[in-house]
Design a protein that fits this description.
Elements lengths: L1 H7 L1 H4 L1 H4 L10 H10 L1 H42 L2 H5 L5 E7 L2 E3 L2 E4 L4 E6 L8 E2 L2 E2 L8 E5 L6 E6 L11 E6 L1
Parallel strand pairs: 1-4, 3-9
Antiparallel strand pairs: 1-2, 4-7, 5-6, 5-8, 8-9
The structure holds copper (II) ion.
Length: 178
């Protein structure tokens, strides 16, 4: 029995010689690269994913541009609302002045000769605007009126509200005619 095992089956007696002949361990990374290169469906999947990612990026970019445009328009509105003082110095023939309790806005006005003051009363009580003896009508709360400055020469004048106590409460300003 024991004499038959050695000579008849040489492969079974030498298990170490069989292992180096089999390239099994180095073959494991091969299937991964082989499927990527040989399988066309994987490449198409990558292409579709890239295309979708590109579309998604464009949507985000458009959305960001919209938000930016909205932010610019909002900031532009704020700056125009606060630019009342700048419009008075532009030499326009009509200058707007707002009256509140108890002040003129703006309180320093620069106008061209012959300008007309457009006056509105945003306060709660009646006001007027008086410049060097010329005065607008008494303007009720929420109302508006105007004062033609055509009769005034170039110079700097005090403007004030003629309602008793209002000028003393601070309802004065300066009007410069160029
Ligand atoms: Cu007043």
């Amino acid at each position: 029995m024991t004499t038959i095992e050695g000579p008849t089956i040489p492969g079974a007696d030498e298990p170490d010689s069989g292992r180096p002949d089999q390239p099994v361990p180095p073959a494991t990374p091969v299937p991964a690269s082989a499927t990527n290169a040989g399988n066309g469906s994987n490449f198409e999947t990558l292409a579709v994913c890239g295309f979708i990612f590109g579309l998604f990026s464009i949507v985000i970019a458009v959305f960001a541009l919209g938000m930016a445009a909205r932010a610019v328009s909002e900031s532009g509105g704020d700056s125009s609302a606060g630019g009342d003082g700048a419009t008075a110095a532009s030499g326009e023939q009509t200058t707007e002045i707002v009256m509140i309790d108890f002040a003129f806005e703006p309180s320093e006005v620069l106008v061209a000769a012959g300008s007309v003051l457009e006056i509105s009363n945003d306060g709660a009580v009646v006001h007027n605007l008086s410049v060097d003896g010329m005065a607008s009508d008494m303007i009720d709360a929420g109302g508006s009126g105007e004062l033609d400055l055509a009769g005034l020469e170039a110079g700097t004048y005090e403007m004030r509200c003629d309602v008793p106590g209002h000028a003393e409460a601070g309802m004065t300003g300066s009007l410069t005619i160029e």
